[in-house]
Every structure is written in C-alpha cells, then in structure tokens.
Amino acid sequence: MIRSSRIIDISPVISPELAVWPGDVAFSRSLAMSWEAGDHLELSAITGSVHLGAHVDGPSHYSPQGSTIDKRPLELYLGPAQVIRVAVDRAERIRPEQVAVKIEAPRVLFRTDSYPDPNHFNEDFASLSPELIDWLASQQVRLVGIDTPSVDLCDDKKLLSHNRVAAHDMAILEGIVLDSVDPGLYTLIALPLPLQGLDASPVRAVLLAED
User: Fold this and answer.
1) 3-state helix/strand/coil string of 112-149
2) Other CB atoms within 10 A of residue 25 CB
C-alpha cells in the first residue's frame, strides 16, 4: 500500500491554450451532445497530440525498432522518484558534473525552471545531455523526467539524448511542472494509457510526499 500525506500534481492543465510542439496537433474538444443543445447529457470528443502536457514517450517515438507505449511495463512509471533541481542555462544540456547530489531513486526528475509557462512554447528550454543519460543508467535509473517539452534541445534533429535512452531501455517523462516542488524523494505515479500502437501517452503525473 502507498501511504502519503500529500499529493502534488505535476501535470499542466490540458486546454486549447496548452502549447504543443510547433507543427503538432493542439488540444480541442467537440460536442456530440450538450445541455445547451437541449440534450439529456453532455458527450464530448477530443483531438490532440499524444504528447500533450505531461506525457511519457514510447520507444517507437524515437526508434524504428522501439516498442509502442501500450507495450511498456507499468512498473517504470510508478514508484520511488527523486526530484533534482539543476542550475542550467537556457538552451543548454545538463551534464553529469552539474548534478550535485547522490542519486537515490530509480526515477529521476529534473527541475530546470527553463520552461515556465506550459501555455507558451519557448524554444530555449534546457535539456539532458547524452553523457548524463549514460551516467544515470550506470546509477540504475530506469526513468528520467524533465520540466520541459523534451529531453533533447528544441533544434536537435538527431535526438541525441533520446537515442541514449533507447540504448539503455529507459523511460521518458516530459512536460511536467516542478516549479513549486522541492528537491527530494517522492513516489511518482505517471501511468500511460494503453493506446495500442501509439508513440506516447498523456499522463496525470503526481508525486506523493511520503509520511
């Protein structure tokens, strides 16, 4: 049983105002039935990228041989996690030597404060370095998360850090909101939907502050 004194929501609100990667599909809602139309219930449909807001990438997103999100073990996205705040410049990659604390959990979430408004896409957000991914893997880290839209820089078409994640079969959590989260140890819950054949899934990512 997971016990907690606090639930900390680290997911941005999904709305038509939520920024998506340039060229990706923004969130929208359509109504099949509504109270205003005189129907007996409200019935909605939604459209949008599977990379909306807080989301987990499936390996098929960045590797032709990668598995889709419905095939990923749920254990990757549930369990002990460590939030680490790193002082990193905009449009720079976090390197191992910038991590000044001991890795104490198999899921590590980086707070960079470089993507402050989920409703505004700023291209100069910070990201992770391939060397950092390799080092985290050597520390038995199974999931890496970041408070930006990507573990790679905005203009990186080679997806250098994604490729190192693939090499170590790690999991990725992107788009989380950590601006009010203190560094430390938590329990992470960020379960993907079983979206058959798809490359990612939005999640309601939360941290449990342990008693």
Assistant:
1) CCCCCCCCCCCCCCCEECHHHHHHHHHCCCCEEEECCC
2) 13
Task: Evaluate whether 168 touches 151 at the Cβ level (below 8 Å).
Answer: no
Domains and CATH numbers, the chain: 6-13+50-209 (3.50.30.50)
Question: What region, left, alpha or beta, does residue 167 occupy, with left being phi > 0 and alpha being psi -120 to 50 degrees?
Answer: alpha
Tell me the pLDDT tens digit for each residue of 112-166: 999 999 999 999 999 999 999 999 999 999 999 999 999 999 999 999 999 999 9
Phi/psi of residue 53, nearest 5 degrees: 50, -140
Which are the catalytic amino acids? 61
Distance of alpha carbon 39 from alpha carbon 1, whole angstroms: 42
- DSSP class of residue 59 equals G
